[in-house]
Amino acid sequence: xxxxxxxxxxxxxxxxxxxxxxxxxxxxxxxxxxxxxxxxxxxxxxxxxxxxxxxxxxxxxxxxxxxxxxxxxxxxxxxxxxxxxxxxxxxxxxxxxxxxxxxxxxxxxxxxxxxxxxxxxxxxxxxxxxxxxxxxxxxxxxxxxx
Length: 146
Hints:
Blueprint: H1 2-23, H2 32-44, E1 50-52, H3 55-58, H4 61-65, E2 68-69, H5 80-91, E3 110-113, H6 115-118, E4 130-133, E5 138-141
């Protein structure tokens, strides 16, 4: 009986993995340009740098760069719900508003801007010069520290 119950479970898990692989589910894959941007972060930013990005990109950045993000994994981010809500609200602003008085901005060193961030409907900051750019991704120096 136990084996008969396990077979459908395994088939369900396997079919989900195959579907995600075939559709290149964005929560599991990064683009070539995203990888190039994260390589730049790894090679050109100090180890203690904190990156502002969308919640979706925040899952990948620490794994590929060793850098911290404002919001990454739900269970590894202190005050995760508040930070995620704040990031989403911030990403919806046109242009991105750097509220220097907000406690979540105080340690941000870089802003990662790409398709995942644009999906929230906002626009990148218009008063900053990019430190990295490719066809899809722009990275800005946040410069919000007092």
